[in-house]
Request: fold
Amino acid sequence: MTTDVTNPAAVRTARVREIASDLRELRGPLIPILHAVQEDLGHVDQVDVAVIADVLNLSVAEVHGVVTFYKDFRREPGGRTTLRICQAEACQAVGAEALGDHVKRRTGLSFGKTSVDGKLTLDEVFCLGNCALGPAVQVNGKLHGKVTPARLDAILGEAR
Amino acid sequence: MKVYVPRDSAAVSVGADEVAERIQASANTIGRDVEIIRTGSRGMLWLEPLVEVETPQGRIGYGPVALEQVDGLIAAGLLDGEGESLGLVEELDWMRRQQRLTFERVGVVDPRSANDYEQNGGMQGLRKALTMTPAEVVEEVTNSGLRGRGGAGFPTGIKWRTVLGADADLKFVCCNADEGDSGTFADRMLIEGDPFVLIEGMTIAAYAVGATEGYVYLRSEYPDAVEALTKAIEAARAKGWLGEDIEGSKLTFDLHVRVGAGAYICGEETSMLESLEGKRGTVRAKPPIPALEGLFGRPTVVNNVLSLASVPTILANGAAAYASYGMGRSLGTSVFQLGGNIARGGIVETAFGITLGELVNDLGGGTASGRPVRAVQVGGPLGAYLPVDQFDLPMDYEAFAAAGAMVGHGGIVVFDETVDMAGMARFAMAFCAEESCGKCTPCRVGAIRGVETIDRIRAGEDRSKNLVLLDDLCELMTDGSLCAMGGLTPMPVRSAIRHFGEDFSA
Reply:
């Protein structure tokens, strides 16, 4: 099968099909496939859902149901930097809410939103497993502990 | 010269990588030969980054080491164990007060090295198990008194016996590593600090019940743990510790990591199984129990990380040695996790029976803020909030249940006097509303009604009537929910009202 490389949608579809085909033999392949698609292409697009459903011989509704159930799967592109702030109890006990409010004020974003320039996605998370060194945040997968508003500003400055 | 610097993600979160690099660079500058070994964390998280230097007397510790202190410490003799140090790490009060069985090697060995694992007592449990019959292994685990460390406390041996007795073409061992509860990080630290012990524990479980495939369901919020375990599984395969004919025993067992996708409910065992099968993580009604119809409908052992990681030491040293720790029907050791607003947070592995107050005040040193402790939440977001006057409670499943609380997985989150307990009760309901799988109404709708009712109480609207309504709602959620998500959310809410009722009045 050849793909029209000048057509981005066709390129994407071909790539999704390739990923899904590579992983289809796993037991319970759907979630590993969705992770791999997101890792490779940044998000799980609506058009990807039909392709994955086809490869796995599932209904589109079934794949759609799974994609929308799990918070990790993005339906649209995220920012180049993803900042996740822990808002769970242990971090709340040491000022996580105030830290969240600070970031929201500074960036003008609320949790779950991406800046219009595509630089930053702000998200909340419930527990990063750093409960003795809170407040904790994760920047593009890297964990930071004992984060003050000033330290967070510095971390964000470096990430840009 | 061997220098140990943790690679545990908590240590790295406060600069351990930069400190390790700086030590190497600084040593190079002065022409000293150093070998930096990246370990897990000892669990003294307030001392991270904790640098240890090997000396003839033992490992000397320095911490917390800030990046800008490294050159000065080296000039003062750090590489020879000299200068201002914490002394021998093993001799620190925090370490001496513990009984480390499951966490024996965490912070000590290089978690990437199978040889290190083996040289420090690893694989003895499996090798012992392979000299016994599967039924004898199950018996040994039963006799140890080991109960599920995930929270429910079900006897591990009984679960294994059910799977062993089930007749099937295929059986599975699943490790629930979806450690989503706030205040818990022991699973993460164990997997990052000593992943081979989990692999060994799962292999023993597989042998005991006749399983050939294993899955570790690990949460996506822990990318470093995913990497550590994946690397360890590869190393174990290369050593012949996984795969076919393990250690020449004809045992075939292989292990795979599956990464979750940000759903708290998948920590519930049946939701986890649905997720592993590639479905929405909704809970299943029980029966059938997973031991008989689990993953893909096959008999499945589902255990928590710490339960499985406790098995190698039980087999290596015998059930009686393990059961000699603890109290009542809570035998062995548990890994308590101190977090939140605490001066000395981290991991304490000790026999059951230590009191809440000893953990929070003696080991934990009270709050980080220096203000008085007001409340502690034990056992995760679904656990009770307890006041200081309950600090003499021993960590024991039954004693906690009698007090309307739960030990759960041993997570302890400390709050100082500034906490608003009505706000925490509201958060418990809001968290349940956000994370409910939606399958049953008491949880899905009840949690939303709970938030609304607490809001009315806080606004002073028909307060006494709404408190009665809230209590009724809690009763319904407790009795009518399919799983512990809806069934236990009332525990933090009711305990907050019972012990901190003043926060719910004007």
Summary: Chain A has a mean pLDDT of 94. Residues 86 and 125 of chain A are 5 Å apart (CA to CA). The interface with chain B takes residues 26-32, 34-35, 65-66, 69-73, 88-94, 125-134, 136, 138, 141, 143-146 of chain A (CB under 8 Å). The radius of gyration of chain A is 18 Å.
